[in-house]
Write a structure and sequence with these properties.
Order of helices and strands: HEEHEHEHEHEEHHEEEEHHEHHHHEHEH
Largest sheet: 7 strands, mixed
Strand content: 15-25%
Helix content: 25-40%
Number of strands: 14
Radius of gyration: 22 Å
CATH superfamily of the largest domain: DHBP synthase
Length: about 375
């Protein structure tokens, strides 16, 4: 007798305090507020670099009782000529401190249209875990990967507090806390026998979705596609990428096969978020390819993680898949997280005049197979 996938909603699970702390810190950063990040080596008040003003910089320094510092990824520091490595985080200091225009110029390549500030005695050095956690929190907030911080000798009152280890462990912990919260039958074009199952982390974060087509047999390798959300390509039909073609093509192919699952992952722009993806598009229009545009912003070329996908498959009762992908990294990632990929199924679509360079870069620099 064929076993069915388990798509029923599951009871709510209380969020661990560590997830709640990071979630609150993310919200505070996104509205331009201060967050106290605590590390074994000390503590710092921080705010997102893209949210600073001269007034908020003065408030930060006064609240902490120390000078403001700037945390940049090694990628961004390398672009600026301040570092000699692409890894880790650099702490940048200035002899006379920072103003908002200088921070914007250092943190945001889009600010190059502003007059170049006068830099006095800038110093950049590899930073430790405290700075790394601050920059990681800015990334989690889908902001530019840069943090303004001031070392705090005493804990500040009435400020959201979060531990560095809570920040660095957040993505894995959130993925492991995913649960099925709802499902419904949703007939789709080219796949009328389809259901959508929603998965939510216990801190109430953004949902990932599974599109279950037909009645997959979890005792056999299931045809599956991992698809990162792409607002411009999936919804608007953007010609800059092939995401819309891949989404609709995968749904059609799974339906033609008879059954399978498409995981729709909330990882816009290779994990950097929609706003930063639009920033990267501006840089691409200035001549950078899709990977170098991300590096100019200070991101790695791909910030996605695939533990959420593996966890979703496990919750559905799936342990083996035939993976629709051109990206060998997805095959390796699922294997690392305990999902066996029995076959890589090619997933190729024709290019157009607007995405030829994008597809060429994926093939030559990201190792995609076409």
């Amino acid at each position: 007798m064929t076993r069915s996938l388990d798509t029923t909603p599951k009871p709510e699970i209380a969020a661990p305090p560590s997830l709640v702390a990071v979630d609150r810190a993310i919200a505070e950063l996104r509205r331009g507020g201060l967050v106290l990040v605590e590390h074994a080596d000390g503590a710092a008040l921080m705010m997102a670099a893209e949210a600073v003003s001269d007034e908020s910089l003065s408030h930060l320094a006064a609240a902490a009782g120390s000078a403001t510092l700037l945390g940049l990824t090694g990628r961004r520091a390398g672009v600026l000529g301040l570092g000699d490595t692409e890894a880790g985080v650099f702490r940048v200091t200035a002899a006379n401190g920072f103003d908002a225009a200088t921070i914007a110029w250092l943190a945001d390549p889009g600010a190059r249209s502003l007059p170049m500030p006068v830099f006095k005695e800038l110093d950049a050095r590899r930073a430790g875990g405290l700075d790394e956690a601050c920059v990681a929190l800015a990334k989690l907030a889908r902001l530019l990967p840069a943090a303004v911080l001031a070392l705090a000798a005493t804990p500040a009152a009435d400020v959201v507090r979060v531990g560095a280890t809570e920040i660095t462990g957040y993505q894995d912990n959130a993925a492991r806390s995913l649960r099925q919260v709802s499902q419904a039958r949703v007939p789709l074009e080219n796949a009328e026998n389809a259901r959508i199952v929603a998965f939510r982390p216990s801190d109430g974060g953004i949902e990932h979705l599974a599109i279950v087509i037909g009645d997959p047999d979890p005792d056999q390798p299931v045809l599956a596609r991992l698809h990162s959300e792409c607002f411009t390509g999936d919804l608007l039909g953007s010609l800059r990428c092939d995401c819309g073609d891949q989404l609709r093509g995968a749904i059609a192919e799974i339906a033609q096969t008879g059954s399978g699952v498409l995981l729709y992952l909330a990882q816009e722009g290779r994990g950097i978020g929609l706003v930063n993806k639009l920033r990267a598009y501006e840089l691409q229009d200035a001549g950078f390819d899709t990977l170098d545009a991300n590096l100019q912003l200070g991101f790695d070329d791909d910030e996605r993680i695939y533990l959420p996908a593996a966890q979703m498959l496990r919750l559905l009762g799936i342990s083996r898949v035939r993976l629709l992908t051109n990206n060998p990294l997805k095959v390796d990632a699922l294997a690392r997280h305990g999902i066996e990929v029995t076959e890589r199924v090619p997933h190729v679509f024709p290019s157009n005049d607007h995405n030829q360079g994008y597809l060429r870069t994926k093939a030559t620099r990201s190792g995609h197979l076409f």
